[in-house]
């Protein structure tokens, strides 16, 4: 079975699109997903399945509409893709440390997209970068480094220029999801050896 991470856009934000995580886990288990776990309230879901990403994306999207009457963009990554995102951060430790010291809140984020943006749209978006708001696009992942704050940043407000829906997670969340992946892998190894 493949370990996947599904990231929902706009769940439990500012009192909108409320979903209780226990109910979400139960709902997704009805789809036949295995070892369903969630992290915090913003729609970060770890699970196992033999199905392909495209099929899972549609099934999860449709199930959330059916059970919660919420239409949310569903972005999926395999465990390997998530760990690659973490390993391949384009920003040096020095840059992140410097940004962290001056930023109000988390400084490093990744916008995760269901499909890679075109070169034209990527170039349009990247025109909004500056010395205080940096970005690197790597396929379906957009790394964002803020020296001030993500709130009201021109860069984040222009993610729509990519013409692909995105859901943004801070680095702390991605690191936690990566460690949850490792825990599940270890648990599977123990179970396989029994």
TrEMBL record:
InterPro entries: DUF1697
Pfam families per UniProt: DUF1697
Transmembrane spans: none
Family matches, as Gene3D superfamilies: SP0830-like domains (3.30.70.1280)
PANTHER family (alphabetical): BLL4334 PROTEIN, DUF1697 DOMAIN-CONTAINING PROTEIN
The protein's name in its UniProt record: DUF1697 domain-containing protein
Lineage summary: Bacteria, Bacillati, Bacillota, Bacilli, Bacillales
């Amino acid at each position: 079975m493949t370990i996947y991470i599904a990231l929902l856009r706009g769940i439990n934000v500012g009192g909108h699109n409320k979903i209780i995580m226990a109910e979400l886990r139960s709902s997704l288990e009805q789809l036949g997903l295995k070892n369903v776990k969630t992290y915090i309230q913003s729609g970060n879901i770890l699970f196992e399945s033999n199905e392909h990403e495209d099929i899972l994306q549609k099934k999860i999207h449709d199930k959330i509409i059916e059970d919660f009457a919420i239409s949310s963009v569903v972005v999926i990554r395999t465990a390997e893709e998530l760990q690659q995102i973490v390993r391949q951060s384009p920003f040096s430790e020095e840059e992140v440390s410097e940004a962290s010291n001056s930023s109000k809140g988390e400084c490093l984020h990744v916008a995760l997209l269901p499909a890679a943006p075109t070169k034209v749209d990527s170039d349009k978006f990247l025109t909004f970068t500056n010395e205080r708001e940096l970005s690197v696009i790597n396929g379906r992942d957009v790394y964002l480094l803020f020296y001030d704050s993500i709130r009201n940043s021109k860069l984040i407000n222009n993610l729509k220029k990519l013409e692909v829906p995105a859901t943004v997670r801070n680095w702390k969340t991605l690191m936690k999801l990566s460690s949850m992946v490792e825990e599940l892998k270890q648990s599977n190894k123990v179970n396989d050896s029994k």
